[in-house]
Fold:
Amino acid sequence: MKLTDDEQAILEGEEGEACAHAMDLLARYGQALGAERLVDTNNVCGGIVGSLPGRRDVLPPDKKMDMDAVFSLLNLDSDKTLEIPPFKANTYRLIEAMDPDLYEVQGVSEETRHLVENTSKFCSRVGIQQCNTCTPYQIGNVPAFGEHCAWMESSSVVYINSVIGARSNVEGAHSTAAAALVGKIPYWGYHIPENRFGTHLIDVEYPVNDMLDWGLLGYYVGEMVHENIPILTGLNGVPHRDKLKHFGASASSSGGVEMYHLIGITPAAPTLEAAFGGGNPVETLRFGPQERKTAYEYFNTGREPNVDLVMLGCPHASLDQVQLVADLLEGKKLSENTDLWMFTPRALKIKADRMGYTQTLEMAGAYLMVDSCVALSKVFPEGAKVAATDSCKQAHYLPAILGFETWLGTTKQCVQAAITGRWHGGLS
Ligand code: F3S
Structure:
């Protein structure tokens, strides 16, 4: 790992102890990955994790409210409390532990609320934009084609690599924190053009139309190619960006896919030859009716039909998705036994409020929540055990993280379950 003179000076303390520590962390991280150098980045999306479940519990009681200490320990792996200066790179915050307006509904403790408020003040002090969403690209952070980014959330990384043509690996809380402080990230993996060519060819032989089908296709692809780069052919038309969002989120949760190509659709894949970089596929796979059915049945076998919670908005919902749910709930009431929580970025909820969608959801007994999500914030209605969702990613995580029995279906089937209290979904 070769550092430039400027980087070496930061390592030696020219910009203070925290930046020196960050540079050391990045140099060691790069070395371990086999990177030869760092690259500049001015677009970091990471987690300020001190208030999140799991992380907040390891903090020493006397340090919990000292954000320099919390950030040093949890984001920079330093037992010593470093004085954290304003961040050098433009930095955006991912998910938080709760919705600040609906924390009581979410069952969040007073202590967590104080941690969240304290974390928020720290973000303002060091200049982190508090987007508090896993989909920064839905609310204005749309990187340029080829831009080197340091993003952490897997569903957003696969989106910007594939749909936009930006460059990021799936980073962690430490590397994004260090990148934010010094504006650098190791140049490896998806930053390098030769690593961005496709490896596997997927022949899509079933007409993939709705969001559920895009999720099932993503789940199948992730399982088959693991961490490689699939190239899809045979698609019928250009999909809506929400479908690409679900496809990538699904493929990254079942298999760790960080980039894909859709021939004639995504920017690095004008032709099959360009997407493969002149090479040949290591394997050719097909997605037909049987593969679709197998992926669906993986999620939907032998569950309790009574549904306690319908969770929508994983990844965080677009305004189009909120509008659809508002249309489906217009004039309806949820079952007394079922909650419906939908998650969206705060910036979009403001629009949903203006359009009357939030009010329609609330009139039906549902909630439109921000800043958080069921699986990562670990917030859910007390006693809930059976969930339904329209997201393969959430269906993947809910049983694993929270022990929920989980149904997967279309958005319409999920809303229907919230109204009747029972699952009537199925694969059409
Ligand atoms: Fe976002 Fe939570 Fe899903 S962070 S991608 S809504 S698991």
